[in-house]
Amino acid sequence: MFPRDFAWGAATSAYQIEGGWQTDGKGPSIWDTFCHEEGRVFGNQNGDVACNSYELWEKDLECIQQLGLTHYRLSLSWARLLPDGTTRNVNQRGVQYYNRVIDDLLACNVSPMVSLYHFDLAQAIQDVGGWKSPGVATLFDNYAKFCFQTFGDRVKLWITINEPQVCAKLGHEVGIHAPGLKEKGTTAYLVGHNMLRAHAMAWHSYNSTYRITQNGAVSLALNSDWLEPLDPGRSEDVTSAERDLIFTLGWFAWPVFVTGDYPELMRSSIETQSKMMGYSGELRLPRFSIDDPPILGTADFFALNYYTSRKVKSGGCSEQILSMKRDLAAEEVLDPSWPICGVSWLAVVPNGLRKLLKYIKDVFNNPTIYITENGFAQVGPLQIEDVERCKFYKSTILEVAKAIEEDEVNVRGYFAWSLMDNFEWADGFSARFGLFHVDFSDPELRRTIYQSGREYAKIISKYKSV
Ligand code: GBH
């Protein structure tokens, strides 16, 4: 059912697992700052220690081996490697840490997939404007080149930026992620634009300098729910669902995979609102400049993070200010038949993944796809026998198999989110996504496999080609 070299993985990210926020010369990131502010995160929790993977990496490696993964997706902490965000100061102890992780993985026959950026901007870069400032793209490119140079002899799968949509929207428009800005209707588009510019610069650096010797692949990880009309018989609902997909996934995927520019529908929707609201400032959705490297074609594969689905109907915005919500003019609702797992946003809809994969195949020119994140949260009383999550993984992986077999989608890998329970951003430690439970009250932070971890290991051993 699965191609011979299919990647069976699990994923984590630096801030969510490492801890050691000040250890061995690491600089602060925007998540350190954000969590240390009162009232930002559930229970005022933070990732100062998290799973302490900075010190307990061997324990993580044991988990990885116990699952029998072929791939492990991790992210590098920019501020651990470059404490002030620039290559003027390299923190060798950070380099040593990631060298060890990468070498240990390879020694165990596990291929690393490495993200350069998973929400944790070096605070020093935030201090000079962060993702709002156009200069961030060059700083990111320098950081990326440093990482390709340092680790690219061994790392063959790279993600530049994880979920630019989430960082732009939740970090700069809604404000529930670092840096916590609530600048509605403008900043998120600017931030997304600079993230795309940064990504494209890094891809071009890889392509022109490192590809010839390192021969790896570089992409960016895009998140999207599957979005379908609430009433397929109502044309407003149909166009609203299409528009929502374009605003969420098309925002980043169109420039990279289709035209080199934002979707026309996105631009026109935004422009219409600007006119209606009498806005006279700079273009809210920026234009790509000819001084920047071209954006079209800057991904060697499609990396998709899928968690859930929504039904969509047309809907305005009652607030009389410009906002992304107003630009989108659509409302997302849950289907009452979908079970909710733990966190309120995560309706369990495995079949939505298959539909989204087919959509990506059709709209983005049949790319090679890695599902770089997919998972199920547990909240409340701990259940090591997590029967519902077992079912979730089984049915989701079945949907992936159908996408490959029946829809002929070119899926090359699947990464479960997450290897172990970790710091779940604004939800702190209250939502547990792991295949391993982590006991955060135990000073040793003991990892214990969930039943779903055993189930996933079984699936892997059944399909993995040896
Ligand atoms: C991923 O984002 C992240 O890459 C990963 O770090 C994270 O741990 C994982 O999801 C699990 O959450 O709070 O109602 O405003 C997935 C995309 C976008 C899904 C934000 C949850 C929050 C909705 N996420 N969304 S809400």
UniProtKB/TrEMBL annotation:
Transmembrane segments: none annotated. This is Glucosidase, beta, acid 3 (gene/pseudogene). GO terms for cellular component: cytosol; membrane. Keywords: Glycosidase, Hydrolase. One of its GO terms (molecular function) is glycosylceramidase activity. Gene3D superfamilies: Glycosidases. InterPro entries: GH, GH_1_N_CS, Glyco_hydro_1, Glyco_hydro_1_AS. Belongs to the glycosyl hydrolase 1 family. It holds the Pfam family Glyco_hydro_1. The lineage of its organism: Eukaryota, Metazoa, Chordata, Craniata, Vertebrata. The active site is at E373 (nucleophile). GO terms for biological process: carbohydrate metabolic process; glycosylceramide catabolic process. Coiled coil: none annotated.
